[in-house]
Design a protein that fits this description.
Length: 220
């Protein structure tokens, strides 16, 4: 993992679209470059030794769509004594990240290098990010940038101990993975073939979303 010079960043990264937006963005506005297809991938709900999809948690109470928020499906501890399960917020679950990296690596000419962006305000932010250049991300978030490889997805690219940085984008801009500091899910944009492959990945819970849909505010 390296720290790229600001002057070496592509224009779509150094001047991210949506960087001056303080309120709602459409899915297409959220991403730094034009991409033809999009999906939303849900971080699983986890507690010690337990992992559940949003669909499992919701049961018959809700259908998971591109507009679903965690509060629509969340459960409280019941008579069974199970702890409340929650997906991580403001990060990408490591198992989700590994599955995405495996799929997305087939849809870029530059799996090395990839830009990883982590929010500057995180407590416990990896020291490697703290010393790097920053760019203005969506919703005006200041984001530290590191240069690495899809092979780094995991602990070496982690923003904090338990999760991946908010954004990762290959140098050729063929796809992008991004979410926000309050999000419990992540958006992926890419070619139609790329998004179809993500949607078909069994270990990922995801739904297709349109470019014109608003990015879900989730737990704002």
């Amino acid at each position: 993992m390296k720290t790229p010079a600001r002057s070496a960043l592509p224009s779509w990264l150094s001047e991210m679209r949506g960087g001056n937006a303080k309120t709602e963005l459409t899915v297409s506005e959220f991403f730094p470059m034009d991409l033809p297809a999009f999906c939303r991938v849900f971080n699983p709900a986890r507690a010690t030794g337990v992992s559940r999809s949003w669909t499992e948690v919701a049961g018959k109470a809700a259908t998971i769509t591109g507009r679903t928020q965690w509060r629509d499906v969340a459960i409280q501890p019941g008579a069974s004594g199970l702890p409340r399960l929650d997906p991580i917020m403001g990060g990408i679950d490591m198992e989700v990240a590994a599955a995405l990296a495996s799929v997305l690596g087939e849809h870029t000419q530059t799996p090395d290098p990839v830009y990883f962006l982590a929010w500057e305000g995180y407590a416990g932010l990896n020291d490697a990010y703290r010393g790097s250049e920053t760019v203005l991300g969506s919703y005006g978030r200041q984001m530290h940038v590191l240069h690495g490889s899809l092979a780094d997805v995991g602990p070496s690219a982690a923003a904090r101990e338990a999760d991946m940085p908010l954004w990762w984008i290959p140098e050729d801009g063929s796809w992008a993975v991004g979410n926000d500091i309050y999000a419990r899910s992540v958006y992926v944009g890419g070619s139609a073939e790329c998004i179809e492959d993500v949607l078909r990945t069994p270990v990922l819970e995801c739904v297709r979303v349109a470019a014109s849909e608003q990015v879900v505010a989730e737990d704002y």
